[in-house]
Write a structure and sequence with these properties.
The protein has 175 residues and is an alpha+beta fold. 30% of the residues lie in helices and 39% in strands.
């Protein structure tokens, strides 16, 4: 056989093999709908993550302010650190000493609020902890607390991802 004929035979065999192994029956539509739902969810999460990454890149390049609607970290006399702001942002760096901290997140949710993610990074960009990943809000105040184990302490910054311009407040309280 010549090359074009061989190529045609190989392609025909590949098409036949693909048809033979593909799912049959009426379940294909259900599978497609499930796949579409999963893809839509994944795209929405990636869109939110993309906004945060753009903010981090701008911050690292020094071409944009280091905070968007976020106030500087303000430690109190008792060593409590409070950060507040609104919307999606990357905060300025702040120091945490070694030890454990009660981290409290407070959000004034709006009808458009569907996600609030809070990630703590070391100043070198390595993730220190995924502090909160909250979805499915109602309107009004929301708060949650957890313990962060800051064994070695150091310089950190927060990445706040939200789906609306809600106001938020993050508190680090030494334990």
């Amino acid at each position: 056989m010549n090359r074009p004929t061989t190529f045609a035979v190989v392609m025909a065999l590949l098409v036949a093999a693909a048809a033979w192994t593909s799912p049959r029956g009426g379940g294909a539509q259900d599978t497609d709908a499930t796949r579409i739902d999963a893809l839509e969810t994944q795209v929405a999460k990636q869109g939110t993550a993309l906004v945060a990454l753009e903010g981090r890149v701008a911050r690292l390049e020094g071409s944009a302010p280091t905070t968007i609607d976020a106030h500087e970290a303000s430690p109190t006399a008792a060593g409590v650190l409070i950060l507040d702001g609104s919307g999606t942002t990357v905060t300025d760096t702040f120091a945490l000493g070694p030890g454990n901290y009660k981290v409290t997140a407070e959000v004034e949710a709006t009808p458009r609020t569907s996600q609030f993610d809070l990630t703590l990074y070391h100043s070198n960009g390595d993730i220190a902890d995924y502090l909160f990943e909250q979805q499915a809000f109602g309107s009004g105040p929301w708060s949650s607390a957890r313990v962060f184990q800051g064994e070695s302490g150091g310089q950190f910054y927060l990445e706040v991802l939200t789906t609306a311009d809600e106001e938020w407040k993050i508190t680090f309280e030494p334990l």
